[in-house]
Specification:
The chain is an alpha+beta fold. Helix content is 48%, strand content 13%. It has 14 helices and 12 strands. The strands form 4 sheets. The chain has a 5-stranded antiparallel sheet with strand order 1-2-3-7-6, sandwiched between helices. A 3-stranded antiparallel sheet has the order 8-10-11. A two-stranded antiparallel sheet has the order 4-5. A hairpin with a 2-residue loop joins strand 2 and strand 3. Helix 6 runs antiparallel to helix 8, helix 9 packs antiparallel against helix 10 and helix 13 runs antiparallel to helix 14. Bound molecules: 5-S-methyl-5-thio-alpha-D-ribofuranose and magnesium ion (MG).
C-alpha cells in the first residue's frame, strides 16, 4: 500500500485541536468567535483519534472530531492504513444522512488535508454493545435498524440506482485496504494458526477442531468470495453493536469507514451476529435463569423484528418501485431468501472471528472469570458455526433463530 499523505497533515492532540476548531468557519453555528473551548480525546476504537470539543460556558455545544491516523491505532505504525478511509466515512455518512437522517449523525465538514470529519455529538446516547452487556433493552432498536438497513442498502443497489450511477458509486467507494483487514481478520486468520489470534487456552480444543474442519473452511471460503466479489450495495462494512449508538428513543449508526460496495448480508449479518454474541455472553453474565431467559428472548425477538421491519421497508422503498416485468415476484422472493441465508452465513463468520481472532468484543472478552468466559465463547462459536453450516436450511427468520437457540456451549469438556 502506498499513499501520499498531505504535507500539511499532522495528528491533532487535545491542545492543538482547539486552535484547529477555532479556525473552521463551518463550526460558526456551534461556537462563538473567541469563546473558551475545551477538548478531550475520547477514542476507544481500533483505528482513529476521536476528540470532543465543547464550549466551556455550555458543554451542550459539543462537536466530535474524528481524525484518521496513517496507521492502525490498535497496533501502531507497524500497520500502515490509508487516511482515505476518512473521506469514505464522510461520504458514506452523507449518504446515510440523506436517506435516514434520524439514524445518521450530521457531518459539519470533511477536511481532506487533515483527514478528519467534524460531526454531530451524540451525548445522550451510549454504544449499544455496552448497554446490551449491562442488560439494557432498547425497545425501538429493531424498528430503527430495520429501516436503516432497508433504506441504505436498497437505495444504493442496482435495484434502485441507474446503471451508470451505480458503477460510479462503486468506484467512489473502492476501499481496498480496509476490505483487506476484513478479508484477513474475518475470513482468513481465525481458521489458521497465527499469533494474532488471542483466544483463551480454555477453548483451544474447540478452535483447533474448527480450524481442522475442511467442510467449514470451504463454507468460510464461499463467504469470503461473496464479500470480495458481490458489489450488491453500499454497505457499512463494520456494522457491529460498537458502531451503533442508542438510548431508549433513538438509534444512530456511526463509523462507516469500512464502507464499500459489498453484499448486503454482511451488514444485516453483522447486526444479527453481534446480538447473538451478546446472547452468548448473557449465558454467564446473567446467572439468574429467569432474567437470563428474559434478556436472551429480548435479543432473539429483536432479531426477528428487525428482519421483519427490514423486509417490510424493503418492499416499500425498493420492490414497489421496480419494474415487475424485469423483477417479478418470484425473483423478489428469491432475492430476500438469499439475503436471509447470506446474513446467516456472513453473520456466523463475524461471530467466530470475534471469539478467535484479533479485535474481540467486550461482551465476551470482558467476562472476568476465565471459565465463564470460555462458556460464553464456546456458545458463540457453536452458534456462529451452525449459522454458517446450516444457512441453506433457513427459509424464515424464525428458522435462523431456532438454529441459534438450539446451540449449547461445548465447554466445559465432558470427555
Ligand atoms: C485491526 S482493526 C480490527 C477491527 O476493528 C474494526 O472495528 C473492524 O471490525 C476490524 O476488523
Ligand atoms: Mg469502527
Amino acid at each position: 500500500m502506498t499513499e501520499q499523505i498531505s504535507e500539511k497533515y499532522y495528528p491533532l492532540d487535545a491542545n492543538t485541536i482547539i486552535e484547529y476548531v477555532r479556525a473552521r468557519p463551518e463550526l460558526g453555528e456551534v461556537f462563538r468567535t473567541g469563546e473558551a473551548l475545551e477538548a478531550g480525546e475520547v477514542g476507544d476504537g481500533n483505528l482513529n483519534l476521536v476528540f470532543k470539543v465543547w464550549a466551556q460556558a455550555d458543554p451542550k455545544r459539543t462537536v466530535v472530531i474524528k481524525q484518521a491516523l496513517p496507521y492502525l491505532r490498535l497496533v501502531g505504525d507497524s500497520w500502515p492504513l490509508p487516511t482515505d478511509r476518512a473521506r469514505i466515512e464522510a461520504q458514506a455518512l452523507e449518504i446515510g444522512h440523506r436517506l435516514v437522517p434520524q439514524h445518521t449523525p450530521r457531518v459539519y465538514f470533511y477536511d481532506p488535508v487533515m483527514y478528519l470529519i467534524a460531526m454531530q455529538n451524540l451525548d445522550e446516547h451510549i454504544i449499544m454493545r455496552h448497554g446490551l452487556t449491562q442488560g439494557i433493552k432498547y425497545p425501538h432498536f429493531a424498528e430503527h435498524i430495520g429501516l436503516f438497513l432497508a433504506k441504505t442498502l436498497g437505495a444504493t443497489s442496482d435495484l434502485v440506482l441507474d446503471y451508470r450511477t451505480k458503477k460510479e458509486e462503486v468506484r467512489r467507494f473502492i476501499n481496498p485496504e480496509l476490505c483487506k483487514i476484513t478479508e484477513d481478520l474475518v475470513f482468513t486468520e481465525p481458521y489458521r494458526y497465527t499469533e494474532r489470534n488471542p483466544f483463551d487456552k480454555e477453548i483451544e480444543p474447540q478452535v483447533l477442531a474448527l480450524q481442522a474442519n475442511d467442510a467449514l473452511r470451504a463454507e468460510v471460503a464461499l463467504m469470503k468470495e461473496k464479500f470480495m466479489t458481490q458489489a450488491q450495495a453500499l454497505i457499512h462494512g463494520d456494522l457491529h453493536t460498537g458502531s451503533i449508538m442508542v438510548n431508549q428513543t433513538d438509534t444512530y449508526v456511526i463509523d462507516p469507514e469500512f464502507a464499500f460496495y459489498g453484499p448486503m448480508g454482511f451488514d444485516i449479518g453483522a447486526v444479527i451476529g453481534n446480538l447473538l454474541l451478546n446472547y452468548a455472553a448473557h449465558e454467564v453474565r446473567t446467572p439468574d435463569p429467569e432474567q437470563r431467559a428474559d434478556f436472551q428472548n429480548y435479543l432473539t425477538r429483536t432479531i426477528i423484528d428487525l428482519w421483519n421491519v427490514f423486509t417490510r421497508e424493503f418492499s416499500t422503498h425498493v420492490w414497489r418501485q421496480v419494474d415487475p416485468i424485469n423483477m417479478p415476484p418470484a425473483y423478489q422472493q428469491h432475492y430476500m431468501l438469499r439475503l436471509l441465508q447470506d446474513s446467516a452465513g456472513l453473520g456466523g463468520c463475524k461471530m467466530m472471528r470475534r471469539v478467535i481472532g484479533l479485535a474481540g468484543v467486550v461482551d465476551i472478552r470482558g467476562i472476568e472469570d476465565v471459565h465463564d468466559r470460555a462458556i460464553a465463547a464456546s456458545l458463540a462459536l457453536n452458534i456462529g458455526q451452525a449459522l454458517l453450516m446450516r444457512r441453506h436450511e433457513i427459509q424464515t427468520i424464525e428458522d435462523l433463530v431456532a438454529i441459534a437457540t438450539a446451540c449449547r456451549p461445548t465447554y466445559p469438556w465432558t470427555s
